[in-house]
Please model this.
Amino acid sequence: MSSPAYAELVARLQRTHLFSTVGDLLGWDEQVNLPPGSADQRANQLALLAEMGHALSAEARNGELLRELETKPAPADGERVVVRQARRDYDRVTKLPAEFVREKAEHSSRAYHAWTAARAKNDFASYAPFLEKHLALAKREAGYLGKAAAPYDYFIDQNDPGLTGDAVGRLFAELKRELVPFVRSVLASPVKPPTGIFRGFPVDGQRLFLREVTERLGFDYRRGRIDVAVHPFCSGTGSDTRMTTRFTVDEPLDALFSSIHETGHGLYEQGLPVADAGTALGMHAGMGVHESQSRLWENQVARGRAFWKFFEPKFRAQFSAQTAALSSEDLYLAINAVVPTLIRVDADEVTYNLHIILRFELEKKLFSGELAVKDLPAAWREASRELVGLEPATDTEGVLQDVHWSGGAFGYFPSYCLGNMMAAQLWYAAQAALPQLEEDFARGDFSRLLGWLRTHVHAEGRRYDLLALVRKVTGEELSPRALLRYLRERYGTLYRV
Ligand code: ZN
Model:
C-alpha cells in the first residue's frame, strides 16, 4: 500500500510530464508543419513552456515529499526506483542557478549559429571560443551537481546512468583493437557493393512500402504517426509517438533504414508502461538503451537475409521497373554496403562505431585538459586517418560536421556505440530464447521478437540502468564481444574475409 506522500509525488510527476508533452508536440510541429514566418512566435512559445515546466519541476513541495519518502524504511522496490529518479531530476532542476540555466541557453543559441556559420565557411577558428565557453559552462554545471572532480563522468551519466568515462574508454579500446583490422580486411575484399543501382524510386511507392514494413514490425499507428521532416527523428511518448523521415528518389534505402531505426525508438516508447508515464517506471532507461532498440531493428533484423526473404518480393512488386535488372545478391550487398566515409551520419553500421570512438576519445581529452580546443582540428584529422582511414580535407567535413557540441551536448556520442553493443547482446539472447526467430522473420512475423523485447526491456522502464539491464537480460556484462561476433558473422561472410 503506497503512502499518501508517494501518491502525491507520483501525481505531481505525472502532471509535470503531461505538461512537458505539450512542448514535445510543439517541437515536432516546428520540424514538420511550421510556416517559415512563424518561427519567432514558436521560439517564444517554447521558451515560455520551458520556464513553466522548470517551475513545476522545482516546486518546493516536491523536495518536501522526497525528503519524507527518503527517510521511510525500505519502501517497495518500484517506489524506491521512482523516488531515486525523482531525486536525480529534482536536484538537477534545483541545484543549477536560474542565472546559469539562462546563460547556458543563450550561449547554446549563439554557439549554434556560430557553428552553422563556421561550418559553411570552413572556419573553425571563429567557432573555437564558443566551444571553449561550452566546456567552461559544462565544468561549472558538473560543479553545481557536486561532480567538479569528474565533469566528463557527470555528462556520461546524464545520458547513460551508471557509466563513467573510464568504463566507456575500456569498452571502446577493446572494440577498437579488433574492429580496426576487421574493417581493413572488409575493405580489401574483392567483393564490392554495387553503386548507382537505385534510380527513380517514386516517393509514393516508398511511402507505401515503408508503411507496410513499419506496421509489420509492430509500430502502432493508432497512437503514432510518421511524417516528413528535414531530419529524421522520433519524439513524443508511448501514447502519441511521432516519427519523421525524408525521401530521395535515388536513395530508397535511406528513408527505409532511417525509418526502421526511428521505428525501433518508437516501438520502445510504445512499449513503456503508459500508466507509469512521468515516473521512472514508465521512462526509458537512458540513451544507450534507447539506441539499442533502434539499432536492433535497423541492423540485426532489417539488414538480415530472413527479413529480405519476406520483403524482397514486396519491394520488387512495388518498384518493378526500377528493380528489373537488379539481382538479389546485389540488393543484399547494397543493403549491407561497407564504404568508409568522413561523415558519421552517412556511415555504415561497421565503420559507424569508429566515428563514435573518435569523438569520444577527443571529448574525453578536452575535458581532462590533455587537448586544447585550438588543437582539436589537427587531432581530429589524425584520429580520422588512424581510425576511419580517411583524412578530411576541410574542417567542415571534419571537426565541424556534428551539431552536438554546438549545443553543449557532451557525453552523448558514446550512447550510439554503447547501443550497438547492447543491441548485439540482446540479439543473441533473443535468438537463444526464441530459436525459430529467423523463420518468423521470413514469414513477415516479428511479433515474438517484439514480445520478448516488451517483456525484458520495455516493461522494465528505468528500473535498471544500461549495465544492470544487460546483465539481467543476457546474463553477461556489457561488452563489445557480441557486436564483434555479429559483425564477423554478417559482414565476414558476405565479404568473404
Ligand atoms: Zn537513434
Observations:
- The CA atoms of residues 378 and 399 lie 9 Å apart.
